[in-house]
Amino acid sequence: MRAYRLLIPHLRPGIFALILGIGLMMTVDFLQLMIPRFIKGAVDALAAGKADRSVLAHYIGLILLVALLTFFLRYVWRQLIFGLARRIEEALRNRLLAHLFLLSPSFYQRRSAGDLMAHATNDLEAVRMALGMGLVSLVDSLFLGSAAIAFMVYINPYLTLVSLLPMPLIAFLTFRLSRLFHRRFEKVQAVFSALMEKIRESLVGILVVKAYNLQGRELRRLSGLSLEYLNQNLGLARITGTLFPLSLLLTNLSLAVVLWLGGTKVVRGEITLGDFVAFISYLGLLGWPMMALGWVVNLLKRGSVSLERIGRILGERPEIADRPGIVPLSRPAELIKVRGLTFRYPGREKAVLEDLNLEIPLGRSVIITGRTGSGKTTLARLLVRLYDPPPGTLFLNNRDIREVPLAQLRSTVSLVPQDPFLFSDTLRANLLFGRPEASEAELWEVLALTSLEREVRVFPDGLETIIGEKGVLLSGGQRQRLALSRALLMNPPFLILDNTLASVDLTTERHILRALPVRRRGRTTIFISHRLVGWEHLDGVFLFAEGRAAESGTHSELMKKKGRYYQLYRRQRLERELEEGVFSDAAG
Is 350 helix (H, G, I), strand (E, B) or coil? Predict the structure, then answer.
């Protein structure tokens, strides 16, 4: 029952509509129950020879009036109840997605995208069906069934008792099968999540699959999951498929018994022919509630299981969040300071960063370099709190970044990763993602800065070109430059470029490095790169080794020391000269 508490905040605003809808539905049920009474009157009048055209017209008029009222009221209650179910589905989906945005990277390491997509689609649909059709079926069955039984008792208690003998058996079987249904539906949803993830992987990696000619293998894997999903659903259908035919069988058996016993009572004169016809009509109305038991159990159990699955996601607490009462920085950020930073990823024994110390003031352009695994990207992630640093190790304006509101921190310090994510949308939409109000002139300005302007103008649709899933239409270098353009349009005080130019050719790289200081004047740009040649003009260099800043200073200062940086730069300079065929005696 705890999962149902998730619905309370969303039910409150629509509680009046829900109550009104249920009231109108009961009114419709009552009107339906009146039709057998009208039929009884007409049949009794015919049997007594008292029926003329005016009497029949009277009963026909009543039936037509009830039919029109039923039509109108049913339309209204369906709008109220099903409309509320749709609005709750929308609210839950928005709540789920908003919560997913808050969760930390470690959560996404445990859960696949396909699983989360299943929660946002299949599970929410099951909740909506339970709130809509499930609730309607439950209330309709209880009210219509109870009222029909009351009218049947009024006509003849003995016939009513005989016709209701199968009811306890149906209730018992429904209870037993519902517990099995709960377990089976959990398995169905789990397989659906795996199927969604496999489809997502196949579509995202379609170029790799085609390049390695592995379409057949991927199709076999997908077919295996599809077959498992089919088998799980068939197992579920066997459970629900048992209740409907069984309810129908027992209802028809009741009808056969009533026909025999009731017909005998009519012949004996114990009940009128009209009463007998009305009783049969009420028994027909009772057939729906009896058969609906299986349908109601199906819908409510599906909704319950799905709501529990959604509740488990909403119950996840973000590891990285603002503490209560946190206050923003009182003045713009001017300094990033790292003091004694030691960090290891969750579940790992070895520290990636160990006793790291450095300072980066506003208005500087610096490069962080070093071998793979030396902690460069880890520091970048910590600076934007994709992972939480230990207390008292990372500071912004001499305040621990854990005490800076996340929204303010991430608008002050922005990270462009080596493999940037681009949306399956237009070039314009991707550029405007972080700053929707930017002007047309500003878009072309940042594109020119990243040497992307000419290439975009060549596209037939220009900025309206749809670039496909993750920018599949673009080359690796174009994707990196588009992501860089997007970041430069936002122009945050501190911008971290993590190997953002790794796929860019040397000529384009030189152009970008010459143009960046103009755009970033008075702001800090932190480059993370293995390249050193061509970056000599930067204000500072931090060479990482084994999680520490082994060397730091300007290019000229480090070259004079003739340490690790000197050796690395000399080797890269020679490689560049061999590549370009231009040699120099300068050491740099």
Answer: coil
